[in-house]
């Protein structure tokens, strides 16, 4: 056979192509191909070796052998679960832990209370948001004085400053001294916003201090419940207060 004939015969041959995996049979696994037989054989022998090793381990096992996982593990709903050991804590240790918790919360609460006092000293609660309307009572002797009463004259100030609850200078002070402080409306507006922010911060700190006080009360209640004294719950625990228990009277030596 000449070389030209072999070349022409080779050119007429069609290349072999593996057929594609049908979409309907994708769930059944890979389509069996000539190239995959070695991988399937290796996987099969690997599983068989693992099964033989487990069988040998089961046959060689000592029936009297004991290890702690036998009592620390169990099967729940077909899942192997290892039991977690419980912490062994005595009542005295628990009381000490509660005491430390109370000390920490009280320390944070006292620090918050000091910050509140400093803020109050700086702000003097001037024009506090949410405060109720203020009243100033003046006492007179007759009904005629009530009808002729002039609050500006009584306070010795100008009528424009009567509604102010702070920094209300008298007429003599205004005549003797010049007005101090900013008078620009934009600057005054900025100062008012800063004062409002300070009051918001004060309100947040007061709420935080109250929450810490409630937490310390609840921790103290849980600490008291560790005693073996007979007790009856009088009031349930709420978000604003701890539960209230009535303990049986017991005379201490």
From TrEMBL:
Coiled coil: none annotated. Transmembrane segments: none annotated. It comes from the Eukaryota. GO terms for cellular component: small-subunit processome. Residues 1-26 are annotated as: Disordered. The keyword Calcium does not apply. It is found in: Nucleus, Nucleolus. GO terms for biological process: rRNA processing. Keywords: Nucleus, rRNA processing. InterPro entries: SSU_processome_Utp11 (IPR007144). Residues 7-17 have a biased composition (Basic residues). Its main location: nucleus. Belongs to the UTP11 family. This is Probable U3 small nucleolar RNA-associated protein 11. The lineage of its organism: Eukaryota, Metazoa, Chordata, Craniata, Vertebrata. The gene is Utp11.
């Amino acid at each position: 056979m000449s070389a030209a004939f072999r070349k022409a015969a080779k050119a007429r041959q069609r290349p072999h192509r593996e057929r594609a995996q049908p979409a309907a049979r994708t769930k059944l696994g890979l389509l069996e191909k000539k190239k995959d037989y070695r991988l399937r054989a290796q996987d099969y022998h690997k599983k068989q070796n693992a099964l033989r090793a487990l069988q040998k381990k089961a046959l060689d096992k000592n029936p009297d052998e004991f290890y702690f996982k036998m009592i620390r593990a169990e099967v729940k709903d077909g899942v192997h679960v290892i039991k977690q050991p419980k912490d062994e804590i005595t009542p005295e240790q628990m009381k000490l832990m509660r005491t430390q918790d109370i000390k920490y919360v009280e320390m944070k609460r006292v620090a918050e209370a000091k910050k509140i006092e400093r803020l109050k000293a700086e702000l003097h609660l001037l024009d506090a948001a949410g405060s109720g309307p203020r009243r100033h009572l003046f006492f007179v002797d007759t009904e005629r004085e009530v009808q002729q009463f002039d609050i500006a004259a009584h306070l010795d100030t100008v009528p424009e400053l009567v509604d102010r609850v702070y920094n209300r200078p008298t007429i003599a002070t205004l005549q003797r001294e010049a007005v101090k402080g900013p008078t620009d409306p934009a600057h005054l507006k900025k100062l008012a916003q800063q004062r409002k922010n300070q009051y918001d911060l004060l309100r947040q700190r007061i709420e935080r201090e109250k929450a810490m006080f409630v937490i310390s009360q609840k921790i103290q209640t849980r600490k008291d419940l560790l005693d073996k004294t007979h007790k009856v719950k009088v009031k349930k625990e709420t978000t604003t207060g701890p539960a209230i228990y009535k303990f049986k009277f017991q005379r201490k030596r």
